[in-house]
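Schema walk-through. Below, the input block comes first and the output block second. Nothing else is stored per chain. Lengths vary across the set, and this one has 268 residues.
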Amino acid sequence: MAKRSRKTDDATVARYQQEGRGVGSGAHYKPWLTVQDVPSQGLAHRIKGWTTGRLHHLFSNLERDVFYLLDWSQSVLDIREQYPLLPLEETESLANEIGVRHPSNPRTQSSVVMTTDFLLNVDTEIGMIQQARTVKPSGELDNPRVLEKLEIERQYWQTRGVDWGIVTEQEIPQIQVANIRLLHGYHHIEDRLPDTAWRNEIIQFLLSRPQSCSVGEAVSDGDAVLQLTSGTTLTVLYHLFAIQQIGFDLGQPLTNHTELFCLQEVRQ
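--- output ---
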């Protein structure tokens, strides 16, 4: 029975590889695990990324929050989630060397492919580098078994010269995340406002506003001057926030009193 179970696990790995999981980049990357593969207790998310243009599979609210911050950052060039630590034999060897149990399928007891939550391409002053980031609630870092698995992961990336680190909820700026979450669906607004000429007229109006203008002032003036349905200017303003052509203090809650400022670079 154990031999048959092991073959089943091996077949799953082979099938995932045949499907192209864990390879590619940008819009063409396929995560090793998807939300359909892992029980999530209702905390899984599929979010279309700005950076990659594809759906990202996130297994917790904490992973979602980290993703929002990464997707907002203009220095992050690519985001690959649920990245597999292959070949499996390598992580098995690392586990053996440090004297810990390799993660396994609880039903078959066969080793499973480990994953890192995020593998990033990051633009820096010295050029593009890769960073691997694992997302964990801080309370789990007191668990010896969690630390054992993290050590396997750390050593895996160390052998590749990739910067690896852990992100907990304590590193998450909650107000920033709330603002990004609010704006995330406004990166593309063609479905909301299909008339390109109309949309561009609102954009030009907003870009011409004084830098001391508040959200409430810009929105009310835009709707009145351009004779728009209430809320139309707000949709376009959120879009300009999302593509970072108009800015605001991301560390403060976004309200009608928030002051606007123009940004030089636009994220397409």
